[in-house]
């Protein structure tokens, strides 16, 4: 087993009976608690999303997480604190998307008004159009 330079996880290589080698990444418990769930451990994307979730009897959460960037999927049991941080991050993303949508809507409306005024100026809109 080898430690990475940051010491927050260990990589273990296992040779399967088929001869294929796989890497198992194991986070130690303390660092696993600090791990930000919205960040993909494989590609570093910050867009990891929960695909399924279920609260356990001890107040933790079983989550299925998926990275839309590299397609990595994982399932695991995470602390309430970690899940709350993920939820906060998702809320921030939703707020940003709504703000973008409002800006886009305003820009479209401004463009519509400009076209309407130009059509009026050219005499292309008449009372009988209404
Ligand atoms: Zn990824």
Task: Describe it.
With 130 residues, the protein is α+β, with helices and mostly antiparallel strands. The chain folds into 2 domains: 1-30, no CATH class; 36-125, no CATH class. It is 37% helix and 27% strand. It is built from 2 helices and 6 strands, in the order βββαβββα. The protein has helices spanning 29-34, 80-121, and strands spanning 2-3, 9-15, 21-27, 49-55, 61-66, 73-78. The strands form 2 sheets. The protein has a 3-stranded antiparallel beta sheet with strand order 1-2-3. Strands 4-5-6 form a 3-stranded antiparallel beta sheet, covered by helices on one side. The chain is elongated. The N and C termini lie far apart (77 Å). The relative contact order is 0.09. Zinc ion is lined by residues 40, 42-43, 45, 67, 69-70, 72.
Structure described in brief:
Helix content is 37%, strand content 27%. The protein is an alpha+beta fold.
